[in-house]
Design brief:
Layout lengths: L3 E4 L2 E3 L5 E7 L8 E7 L6 E7 L4 E3 L7 E6 L4 E6 L8 E9 L5 E4 L3 E5 L2
Parallel strand pairs: 2-11
Antiparallel strand pairs: 1-3, 3-8, 4-5, 4-9, 5-6, 7-8, 9-10, 9-11
Length: about 120
């Protein structure tokens, strides 16, 4: 059974940093891509950053230059480093893993609250 367990959220002041972690049960290479999404109150879930098995990354415009997605293969863990946080980054952040074949399947972490406030 595939599990994604997140950690690292919390309360941070504007301008601060946080690093989210997503530990997968088993090898992260089973996923064709992994990523981070977020959902703010009253808004739809949106992509924050993604990382494919080949190492390609994609970022939402809101996080470019501030957020970095990376992985540690030995630990089967994906990270999201978030710097220069602002109040608009407040949301529940979800780790995602997608397997494309034979059919597309999405797996989600439990969600991790990030609150940016002074």
């Amino acid at each position: 059974q595939v599990q994604l367990v997140e950690s690292g959220g919390g309360l941070v002041q504007p301008g601060g940093s946080l690093r989210l972690s997503c530990a997968a049960s088993g090898s992260i290479f089973r996923f064709d891509a992994m990523g981070w999404y977020r959902q703010a109150p009253g808004k739809e879930r949106e992509l924050v950053a993604s990382l494919t098995n080949s190492g390609s990354t994609r970022y939402a415009d809101s996080g470019k230059g501030r957020f970095t997605i990376s992985r540690d293969n030995a630990k089967n863990t994906v990270y999201l480093q978030m710097n220069s946080l602002n109040r608009e980054d407040t949301a529940v952040y979800y780790c995602n893993g997608v397997i494309v074949m034979p059919t597309t399947r999405n797996y989600w972490g439990q969600g991790n609250q990030v609150a940016v406030s002074s």
